Amino acid sequence: MDVVGLREETPGCAGLVFLDNAGASLVPRQVHEAVVSHLELESRVGGYEAEGLAAELVEESTAQVAGLIGASPREVVFFEGASQAWSQALGAVVLEPGQRVLTTTSEYAGNGVGLLRMAALRGVRVQVVPDDADGVLDVGVLEEELGRGDVGLVAINHMPTHNGLVNPAEAVGKLCARFGAVYLLDACQSVGQWEVDVERIGCDLLSGTGRKYLRGPRGTGFLYVRDGVRLGEPLSVNHIGGEWSGPDSYRVLAGAAGFASFEHSVAARIGLGVAARYARGVGMGWARERIGGLAGLLREGLAGVPGVAVCDRGRERSGIVTFTVAGREAPWVVGELRERGVRAGVSRPGEQRWSGAGEGSVVRASVHYYNTGEELGRVMDEVGRLV
After folding, report:
1. For residue 380, with 0-12 CB atoms within 10 Å meaning exposed, 13-18 middle and 19 or more buried, which class applies?
2. Global pTM?
3. In the prediction, which pLDDT does 351 show?
């Protein structure tokens, strides 16, 4: 790929080193233009008529997102964010009192709270599967727990938000298929930086977001619902995902269609589709290789700076690089880097209460394929000056 061309299509690359892609990435010019174009159309003809005129673009957005993850368009439904998509998926899983829900130590705090709430509502028990020696979900222990029975759901993240590890999503999928457990995968950090193929992974449900590595607009997310997966009703049902079946009865549509809702930003959904098309054009195999190489370069360089400790775990690692600077709080480091033209973020592993991490925070520098080795060299120099 032409990295210079990719950077030219990303206006935000000019004048700063952007390393907050795990938070909200820089959108390419094509996404920006698609969103603005539809907003201008709405200003001329009104929102309803504009939606009708853009019906093919919205349909194309669904097809592009589905194609990116190896799904059928009928298996994909849009949301205003990944948390909403994940919560609706969780609420529709059929769970009986006394069953167990298996998850990881590295779950996003919002997911953890959602799982505990569901446990209280349904009378199920959340069980955290321990990590192996490399810090990722222990597949051997997971297999043992599934073999004990009474597991209604396995809900894990592909890549956690607070460090660079990658959980063995495909191995988990094989075990869930073998033991008949529903499999919900949070792919917020992986869609857009790795190949994510729902057939190869074997998940029944997958949630993703637009604003992170996919480089789409904020306020966009999506849910994949495998055809034929046994689910109950979503926690929230309306006349788009359901329909009247009698004066005092209703019917929820099957599959992903049952999760659809009426009100949404058409411009943002069009932008999400353009972002998915852009990602497919870039190629996720190339993206994974380049992001991994840049992240490895940054980890190695930072580890060589006296007083800097790299905090990432796992056998395979994502584009998220986390580190601490001796004697300095992470928010201070991020603020100082910002003054020097480097955008990074703060991660608080302690918010993942099941991880056993302390209360401290770390600097999160998440690279993307449009970053360069020269930029990362500059970051290493700037961090060295802050020690």
Report:
1. middle
2. 0.95
3. 72
Asked whether residue 1 carries a pLDDT value surpassing 90, the answer given is: no
Closest CA to 201 of 165, 174, 235, 233: 174
Q: How far apart are CA 348 and CA 11, in angstroms?
A: 30
DSSP 146-166: HHTS-EEEEEEESS-SSSSB-
Kindly report, residue by residue over 105-118, the tens digit of the pLDDT: 999 989 999 999 99
Contact of 231 with 92, CB cutoff 8 Å: yes
Q: Using CB atoms within 10 A of its CB, is residue 215 exposed (0-12), middle (13-18) or buried (19+)?
A: buried
- Rounded CA separation 228/89 (Å): 14
Chain position carrying tokens 């809702």: 261
Pairing mode, if any, of strands 345-347 and 362-366? antiparallel
Bridge partners for 246 per DSSP: 249
Q: How confident is the model at residue 325 (pLDDT cuts 50, 70, 90)?
A: very high
Question: CA 354 to CA 119: how far, in whole Å?
Answer: 16
Helices 139-147 and 169-179 meet at what angle, rounded to 10? 10
* Residue 14 clears pLDDT 70, i.e. is over it: yes
pLDDT given for residue 168 in this prediction: 97
pLDDT tens digits, 214-266: 999 999 999 999 999 999 999 888 889 998 888 999 999 999 999 999 999 99
Q: 9, 182, 218: which is closest to 101 by C-alpha?
A: 182
* CA pair distance 273, 176, nearest whole angstrom: 30
Encoding tokens for residue 152?
Answer: 């209604």
3-class secondary-structure state, position 192: coil
Report yes or no: 86 and 109 within 8 Å, Cβ to Cβ.
no
